[in-house]
């Protein structure tokens, strides 16, 4: 990690088109991931802290130092309505970087949620607030405020590249990142996929088999599948 990336706060970022963000918010992570050509997923170690948590918004990115949450406080000032904080760390760390006080601050500034490749705490309070948090760990161990990271630089969070202003969608299935430049196309592709799935769901509910709907019988036979009575 170049030291040039540390100690920087970019105040002006290009956020994805709000209409595209709103459209993407209607779809699940799996649908968007598939519609984009199976890209953009964070590692499945990032999980919601409560069932049913869901968030869609534009990324304000944070690069944290291990065991140090200073930059989350710095990031709060940069939030606009509809933003989601996406926090990566310079090295592996599962300390409890975030709790209900920071969530209260983020929400007051328009923040919609947090995705963090690290730990969080105060889960009972965050759940009661219904503040969507997706993290690698839940950990009561606190952090210090001593070493500079950065805000609004490109980060790799749980294996996914996130640029400031990208669209981040998270639900029970995981977290997917949609680059701001293709947000509209991704939303259109997700809508088309959803319509296609609605038709398939209707046919499957009527008792039709995937074997027939997807024309699997012939390739299964060619692959050597044998039925024995």
| pLDDT < 50 stretches | none
Strand content: 15-25%
Oligomer: single chain
**Straight-line N-to-C gap:** 62 Å
Structural class determined from secondary elements? alpha/beta
Overall 3D geometry?
Answer: elongated
Mean pLDDT: 97
Helix proportion: 25-40%
Largest sheet: 8 strands, mixed
Tell me the number of helical segments per DSSP (H or I, 4 or more residues long): 8
- What is the radius of gyration? 20 Å
User: What is the number of E strands?
Assistant: 10
Topology:
Elements: H1 18-24, H2 29-35, E1 47-48, E2 55-64, H3 70-76, E3 83-89, H4 100-108, E4 113-120, H5 123-129, E5 133-138, E6 150-151, E7 155-157, E8 160-162, E9 167-171, E10 174-178, H6 183-205, H7 210-213, H8 217-222
Parallel strand pairs: 2-3, 3-4, 4-5
Antiparallel strand pairs: 1-5, 2-6, 2-9, 7-8, 9-10
Helix pairs in contact: 1-6, 2-6
Which properties best describe this structure?
elongated; alpha/beta; about 230 residues; two-stranded antiparallel ribbon; eight-stranded mixed sheet; single chain
């Amino acid at each position: 990690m170049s030291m040039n990336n540390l100690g920087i706060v970019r105040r002006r970022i290009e956020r994805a088109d709000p209409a595209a963000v709103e459209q993407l918010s209607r779809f699940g992570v799996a649908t968007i991931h598939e519609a984009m050509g199976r890209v953009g997923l964070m590692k499945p170690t990032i999980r919601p802290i409560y069932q049913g948590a869901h968030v869609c918004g534009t990324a304000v990115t944070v690069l944290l130092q291990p065991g140090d949450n200073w930059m989350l406080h710095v990031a709060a000032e940069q939030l606009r309505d509809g933003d989601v904080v996406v926090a990566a760390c310079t090295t592996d760390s599962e300390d409890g970087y975030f709790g209900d006080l920071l969530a209260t601050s983020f929400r007051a500034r328009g923040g919609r949620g947090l995705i963090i490749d690290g730990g969080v705490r105060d889960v009972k309070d965050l759940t009661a607030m219904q503040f969507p948090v997706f993290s690698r760990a839940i950990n009561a161990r606190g952090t210090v405020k001593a070493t500079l990271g950065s805000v609004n630089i490109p980060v790799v969070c749980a294996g996914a590249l996130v640029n400031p202003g990208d669209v981040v969608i998270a639900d029970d299935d995981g977290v997917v990142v949609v680059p701001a430049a293709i947000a509209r196309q991704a939303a259109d592709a997700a809508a088309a996929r959803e319509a296609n799935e609605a038709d398939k769901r209707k046919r499957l509910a009527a008792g039709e088999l995937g074997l027939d709907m997807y024309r699997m019988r012939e390739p299964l036979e060619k692959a050597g599948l044998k039925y024995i009575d």
